[in-house]
Amino acid sequence: SLYSVVGRHSGMIPGFHYSAANRASGLVWDPTTLDRYLAAPRQVVPGTLMTYPGLKDPHQRADLIAYLATLH
To answer: What single DSSP character describes residue 9?
Structure first.
């Protein structure tokens, strides 16, 4: 779930199948980290199971992060 993702530690929802890389990343999904991850998930978390290729447009990423920040 992406509900309350902003500010959450990576790999912490019980029962969700995260990659070992995601669980061990130590990341907190703040806006800066989300921006980097949404642009290039496999560069930020090598070994992620995420098949998402990334969102290249910085304005679209900013809009997405702003929306995610409203889900709390």
So the answer is: B
Q: Is residue 31 packed enough to be buried (19+ CB in 10 Å), middle (13-18) or exposed (0-12)? A: middle
Amino acid at 43: Q
Q: What whole-number distance in Å separates Cα of residue 44 and Cα of residue 50?
A: 11
Judge if pTM exceeds 0.70.
yes
Specify whether the CB–CB gap between 19 and 49 falls below 8 A.
yes
| Closest C-alpha to 23, from 35, 9, 34, 43 | 9
Over residues 27-54, the pLDDT tens digits come to 999 999 999 999 999 999 999 988 889 9
Dihedral angle over CA of 58, 64, 65, 67, nearest 10: 150
Nearest C-alpha neighbor of 9 from the set 22, 28, 23, 35: 28
Q: Which residues are bridge partners to 9 per DSSP?
A: 28
